[in-house]
């Protein structure tokens, strides 16, 4: 069956001598297609199957994998492939999308948030804020949304000075002893995460968040994700290496 869908390339790899297999995120789910001859310089598919490309795709689907017939680029996101720093963050957004979404699981909201995330990175918005906002969107989709505005134990809305990765949210000072692995969290970091959880990336403006606050929110989100989602993130490891070597 010939199908048409607007999609974003979230994974692309070589197959055979001249072909590529690409994974697309569309509003109705992930689609895997073979782009025959796409590795060849003069191929009509070579540009449209590049990582992060947002395009209209026409493909023939008869089983688990389709065959690409045609593609028209909407946004190439060229800067996300040529700038190492931006590329690393964009790759993480693509990887978390691929790993946390099932093959036929569709989400129009995530589709548009991913595009907005790529646009924000290309526009030089704070990549850490972009990354954390998108992580929170994907956690919500996967059913692991952390709670930041109330104590997960007693429901209190004040003195939320701790966060429990295992229990899934903030803890007040009275309930902190319920988790020996709790993490201290200050109000700025907790309120930032609560705001990012509800932020539409399309509306992300200029931000002025201290490095200390971003470091705390990043540690908190990482602990939470590693507690509930047992995946070794390749792109995240690369980001860590870049930070370690001061890139």
Automatic annotation (TrEMBL):
NCBIfam families, A to Z: reco
InterPro entries attached here?
ARFGAP/RecO, DNA_rep/recomb_RecO_N, NA-bd_OB-fold, RecO, RecO_C
Q: Does the keyword DNA repair apply?
A: yes
This one is known as DNA repair protein RecO
Using the record's annotation, list all stretches that form the DNA replication/recombination mediator RecO N-terminal domain. Answer: 1-77
Report the gene name.
Answer: recO
Q: Per its UniProt entry, which superkingdom is the organism in?
A: Bacteria
Its annotated function is as follows: Involved in DNA repair and RecF pathway recombination.
Species in which this protein is naturally found:
Marinicrinis lubricantis
Identify one Pfam family in the record: RecO_N
- Which keywords describe this protein according to UniProt? DNA damage, DNA recombination, DNA repair
Q: What is the lineage of its organism?
A: Bacteria, Bacillati, Bacillota, Bacilli, Bacillales
Family to which this protein belongs: Belongs to the RecO family.
């Amino acid at each position: 069956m010939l199908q048409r869908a607007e999609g974003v390339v979230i994974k692309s790899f070589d197959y055979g001598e001249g072909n590529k297999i690409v994974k697309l995120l569309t509003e109705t789910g992930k689609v895997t297609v073979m782009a025959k001859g796409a590795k060849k310089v003069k191929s009509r598919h070579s540009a449209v199957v590049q990582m992060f490309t947002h395009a209209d795709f026409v493909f023939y689907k008869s089983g688990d994998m389709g065959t690409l017939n045609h593609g028209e680029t909407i946004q190439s996101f060229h800067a996300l492939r040529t700038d190492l720093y931006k590329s690393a963050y964009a790759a993480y957004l693509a990887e978390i999308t691929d790993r946390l979404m099932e093959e036929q699981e569709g989400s129009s909201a995530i589709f548009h948030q991913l595009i907005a995330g790529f646009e924000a990175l290309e526009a030089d918005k704070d990549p850490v804020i972009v990354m954390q906002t998108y992580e929170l969107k994907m956690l919500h989709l996967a059913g692991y949304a952390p709670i930041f505005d109330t104590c997960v134990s007693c429901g209190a809305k004040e003195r939320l000075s701790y966060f429990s990765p295992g229990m899934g949210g903030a803890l007040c000072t009275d309930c902190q002893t319920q988790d020996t692995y709790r993490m201290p969290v200050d109000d700025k970091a907790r309120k930032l995460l609560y705001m990012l959880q509800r932020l539409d990336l399309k509306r992300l403006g200029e931000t002025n968040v201290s490095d200390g606050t971003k470091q705390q929110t990043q540690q908190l989100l990482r602990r939470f994700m590693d507690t509930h989602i047992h995946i070794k993130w390749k792109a995240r490891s690369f980001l860590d290496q870049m930070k370690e070597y001061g890139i």
